[in-house]
# Entry
Amino acid sequence: MQKNFLSNESFPLFLQGLAASGDLHGPVLTDDGVMAFRPICSPADIQLDCIRTLIPPKKYFFPPKEAILTYSPVKGYQLTKAAGKKVILFGLHPCDLAGIAYLDRVFLESQPDPLFVKRRKAVTLIGLSCEPDEYCFCGTMGTAEPQNFDIFMHRTEAGFYLSAGSSRGKKIIRRLSVLLEAREPPSPVPCECKIEETILQAATRGETFSESRLWEDFAGRCLSCGACSLCCPTCYCFDVQERGRLDGETAERLREWDNCLFKSHGEVAGGHNFRKTREERFRYRFQHKYLGFGPMRGIVSCVGCGRCRDVCPVKIDLMELFREKANIL
Amino acid sequence: MTDMTTIPAMATITEVHPLSGDTSFFRLGLKEGEAQGFTFTPGQFVQLSVPAAGEFPISLAGSPGHGRELELCVRKAGHVTAVLHNLRPGDPVAVRGPFGTGFPVERMRGNDVILLAGGLGIAPLRSLFHYFLEHREEYGAITLMYGAREPSAILFRDELAELACRRDIRLMLTVDFLTEEPAGGPVCRVGLLPGLLMGIKLRLDQTYAAVCGPPALYRCLITELLGLDFPENRIFLSLERRMKCGIGLCCHCAVGDFFCCTDGPVFSYDRIKEIPGVI
# Structure
């Protein structure tokens, strides 16, 4: 039998071992009281019980703002190069891994985005099992089953059961096998989800809940703050801006996270706005999350991490649409 | 040839002239070697980069048969287009594209075509119109109906005056308001564009309509066309949205579950009619 069990006592050493493969990052409690993926200075900083970070791990592959092109009169426009520094990202819950899997499909499949490719390759994904709270609904979204990881660590009272999901993960486990022992892993507990069928059926038939009164209710309360998409692990709308440098000749083109709840999102030249009202913007967000656009149509991109329901200052919850339909309030 | 999808290819402005108070015509030459074999379908668009100012999506307004030479019709509408309007021949710009799905010129072959343009909507339809003229014998009756706010807002006036003399096409112009008697220029009527359709004989099963204009125009034109029993799948509209990437990534231009930048911007009416807020 393979060595797969890491005891709590060996955990700090395991982290040190991981750090040999790259900069170790994981969930920590920041000075301003926010859970965030940050570099780990000491194993004690890691928040193993972290339920969710405020900003999802997408920032590692798709930074909030990055230069995508540079311009100079001599060389014209050129692609920028991502640093591609090796990072070991520890503590990714199954929902976050599913979020990364979705972004992989968007940025790696039909037209690979050079910056995303470089950053993605440089990051090793270490998953960690978790206990859902009242905001989580990953079981509902079918994302409770871990996917897209290099190593997944199933946490129990005595320690962690490790499984490798890639050759990179296998190599790391092999390298650190001195810290591991062989044990029979506990059998997985199936997730019970009342609403999953409703969501999947709704998505399959392209349900837009066009008659629902909830849209009005949502739009009436929404502040257009955009927190829901900022903290969404699968939201990737971006704006493109160009900034001239102070030399007056060269320039940088930036791509920056954008937000479909912002009024400017649907604006076109001349000032006409195709999504002027909050309700229209909400419907657009719903359409993107549950029905998908273009090549991603038909793919539900909500991973059930619960961030949007948790952070919304006016407690708007798109799940209510499905519950209303299924009469399970 | 460089990858013109992600990296803008350098081009030089070779000609600029005003078409109306806020709109100018730009002719660009793509740098040799950078854009070998550049071609497009009428209705497709490019992302035009103005160095240090930014990038914006714009319809190609010329015929696809001109290789590295591109023609654009740009209104001064924001900070990037304002910088462009200050540029002169010889100044550098850059181009990504072409992007999107244009008008189905193959499917239209052998049929009559009616082009309906409102205001700046003439830009992509000019490209289509020139394409038809270059392939005149492959198409049936060709009609261009073009409406502008007032005589001074009619774009490509000289070109239209010349085309009005041709016997193998039908050109109909209209203006919403006649503020002053136009000095020279093509003959035009007074009234809204949909009015031009009244009394026109169309062979409904052998005609395609191509429409481009502001949203309000679409609404009344579609009503008018459907009133004439024009088949929904023979009406093609070019939708305006703010495409920031052009490759179906940035998610600004979705209509229903389509992306305007890849699935469109040209759609047949039957594909989009059920989408709320589409026009």
About this structure: The two ends of chain B are 37 Å apart (CA to CA). Residues 108 and 169 of chain B are 16 Å apart (CA to CA). Chain B has two domains: 9-99, 105-238.
